[in-house]
Amino acid sequence: MSSQSNRYWGIALLSTLVFCGCMLPLNAPTGEIPIALLHNSYSCETSDEEAKLTVISDQNTYEGLWRRINRSSLMPPSIPGTNFKRYVLVLVELGRRNNAGYGLILSASDATINSGEVTLPVTAITPQSETFTPQVMVSPCLLVQINRQGVDTVNALGITRQVAPN
Fold first, then answer.
1. Domain span at residue 101?
2. Percentage of residues in the chain having pLDDT higher than 70
3. Is 77 among the domain residues?
4. Pairing relation of β-strands 36-41 and 103-106?
5. CB atoms closer than 10 angstroms to residue 83
6. What is the CA radius of gyration of the chain?
7. Predicted TM-score of the model (pTM)
8. What is the predicted pLDDT for the residue at 1?
9. First-residue to last-residue Cα distance in the chain
10. 144 is a domain residue
């Protein structure tokens, strides 16, 4: 190859690298982000038997879910306020279970974020074998709030959901 041809290919390669580099998200954080736990219950009033992850990014959806997850409360708590321009809420549900040995816990105060994907530190609790637990229907859930900046997807219990753009 001639030096003119090498120079052409070098400029083409450099232009491609610069162009591709400009398309990478500059504000996609990596590391840990804080989580605010807004609600934790053993009775979130679902009939679904499978685990579920719901991303909430508007007030109307939030109010409807808040009413549902507190339906069995004699004195339901007031709905916590949130700024949906800055935060997104995530409802993690284990699904309907047949005894009180099941539950969900938030195992850390921070979630991990990598390339726009947030992984929530949620652990499902299952009853230990050979233990007695009350035979009562439960539907455990957690409602958390995370900063939405740079977040594209949320993952918990092996389920991934998209976050609607702001």
1. 28-162
2. 83
3. yes
4. unpaired
5. 8
6. 22
7. 0.80
8. 53
9. 51
10. yes
Residues 6+ apart with CB under 8 A from 20: none
Closest C-alpha among 150, 154, 155 to residue 165: 150
Distance CA 40, CA 105 (A): 8
> Six-digit token pair at 105?
């816990």
- pLDDT tens digits, residue range 123-144? 999 888 888 887 888 899 999 9
CB 31 within 8 A of CB 113: yes
Give the number of domains in the chain: 1
Q: How far apart are CA 106 and CA 140, in angstroms?
A: 12
Count the Cβ atoms, other than its own, within 10 Å of residue 63.
12
C-alpha neighbours within 13 Å on the C-beta side of residue 74? 0
Is 11 contained in some domain? no
> Is 2 within the bounds of a domain?
no
Beta partners for 93?
52, 141
**Nearest residue to 85 via CA among 24, 164, 153, 26:** 164
